[in-house]
Design goal:
5-stranded mixed β-sheet; 7 helices; 53% helix; alpha+beta
Length: 223
């Protein structure tokens, strides 16, 4: 297997060299315990169910409800950064015990009401227990981010990884989230704060556009 390039992680109060060592140690521990493989198995088990419910909803409403889905496995550098941010011990055991988003699926919808429809259907998927729900549409993050996050646990699993996070959001907000994520790696760069403020303004504009597009779609459906 080709060795992944480890990104340098910046964190206040911790030297870059120490962080790089922590990331390298995390990457090695994840390989030894087959964490990526376990995360991928969780994703592979859930993804077909999400696609089936998407087809079912599309048949009911006679239009495309889910635009597309993507998946991701949390990288060693992201795990180390999150453990530091939560003031937790930086170890694989602590990551597996406390982080519930090591495996994740993103579900992208055209309209905001579809986000709620899809999230509601996912919460009722057979074989899974809803552990936690965060509605960042009703209560956006400070950055302006809006989405619905669901933490699900398989009813029966033999894996060390017992949770999977599902993020459901509009296509417009997804474009915003991709750009905002890139900024996370440039916190200390010149101009980052200005861009962050502009991104928050864009998030507010996107929320308004999402509502307006939903209103227009409903008007078109009445014609």
């Amino acid at each position: 297997m080709k060795k992944k390039k480890v990104k340098p992680v910046k964190q206040m109060g911790t030297t870059g060299t120490k962080l790089q060592k922590e990331v390298a140690a995390m990457e090695e521990a994840m390989k030894q315990h087959h964490i990526e493989e376990q995360c991928q198995l969780l994703i592979d088990e859930m993804m077909p169910q999400i696609k089936r419910l998407g087809r079912s909803l599309s048949g009911t409403y006679h239009r495309n409800i889910i635009e597309y889905t993507t998946s991701r496995i949390k990288s060693p550098e992201s795990i180390v950064e999150k453990l530091h941010r939560k003031n937790r011990e930086v170890s694989l055991d602590k990551a597996v015990a406390t982080l519930r988003d090591l495996a994740g699926i993103r579900v992208i919808c055209s309209f905001q009401d579809d986000v709620y429809r899809v999230a509601g259907a996912i919460k009722n998927l057979p074989g899974y227990e809803l552990v936690k729900e965060k509605n960042y549409i009703n209560k956006p993050k400070a950055s302006g981010y809006r989405s619905i996050h669901l933490i699900l646990r398989p009813a029966n699993t033999a894996y060390d990884i017992n949770y999977i996070e599902i993020q459901v959001r509009s296509a417009a907000m997804n474009y915003w989230a991709i750009l905002e994520y890139q900024l996370c790696y440039k916190n200390e760069k010149k101009g980052a704060e200005r861009i962050r403020k502009e991104l928050k303004e864009c998030a507010i504009d996107i929320a308004k556009i999402d509502k307006k597009m939903l209103k227009l779609r409903k008007e078109i459906e009445k014609i």
